[in-house]
Design brief:
The chain has six helices and nine strands; from the N terminus they run ββααβββαβαβαββα. With 241 residues, it is of the alpha/beta class. It is 36% helix and 16% strand. The strands form three sheets. Strands 7-6-5-8-9 form a five-stranded mixed sheet.
Length: 241
């Protein structure tokens, strides 16, 4: 093996390297060189793949992650969250019910209630469970159970404050009803304002009272004094017929 540090005929600076006589002695250096080349190629491919994202700085990856989280969250809420809205009425209103309006077997009274954003006729809420809520009922558990049972059949769940003989202001009553609606974890509970307490008077509400309304507007049943653990599945199922 010859040292290349011998005097150079061209006056170039001496370089202290060793040139092997057998090229096979360079095997380890060649392998290291090839590994480094492969590493560099991987880096170049990765930079080409990430260039569209990193071109505009760190903001784009952050936005992309936020959009992905929002998409996943929306999917989870859609699949596992409460039913966003009750089924819209498609059946015509019963023309020949077996009882007068306002009675069990008859259609709902011809009146209006205020729901968020506008007023609606009672008959347009069908099929539904209209829950008449006394002041300070403390019935969050029962409302949550109702939301679970109504969600199975996509039947509207409406909460109506009983404003008969009460000193509670409309604003305070509305606040209590919104809080109560928030207890419904399985389906949307819609607050309907009945300032004249027509439903409570018509159906003689006592305690927490539920009015079960068919898709054709006929009242199937009225259940007074609702309590936690009450199974209403059969009544709800009958509203589908």
């Amino acid at each position: 093996m010859r040292q290349s540090g011998d005097p150079d005929d061209y006056g170039l600076p001496h370089v202290d390297i060793v040139v092997p006589d057998d090229a096979r002695e360079l095997g380890s250096e060649i392998l290291a060189y090839r590994r480094e080349e492969r590493r560099q190629r991987r880096r170049r491919r990765w930079r080409r793949l990430t260039a569209p994202i990193t071109r505009y700085g760190p903001a784009v990856p952050i936005i992309a992650c936020a959009l992905l989280i929002a998409l996943v969250s929306g999917t989870v809420i859609t699949v596992f969250g409460p039913d966003p809205a009750p089924r819209a009425p498609s059946d015509p209103v019963a023309q020949r019910p077996t009882a007068l309006p306002g009675q069990v077997g008859g259609v709902l009274p011809d009146a209006e209630v205020a729901v968020p954003g506008h007023r609606k006729r009672l008959i347009d809420l069908r099929p539904a469970v209209l829950v008449i809520v006394p002041p300070g009922c403390g019935c969050e558990t029962t409302i949550d159970e109702l939301s679970r049972q109504t969600s199975t059949y996509r039947i509207g769940l409406y909460l109506v404050a009983d404003r008969r003989d009460t000193d509670v202001s409309i604003e305070q009553s509305a606040k209590e009803m919104r809080k109560l609606a928030g207890a419904a974890r399985h389906a949307v509970a819609i607050v309907a304002r009945d300032d004249d307490a027509l439903l409570a008077k018509t159906y003689r509400a006592s305690g927490l009272t539920a009015v079960f309304v068919h898709a054709d507007g006929v009242v199937e049943d009225v259940v007074r004094g609702l309590a936690p653990g009450q199974n209403l599945e059969k009544r709800l199922q009958s509203l589908q017929n």
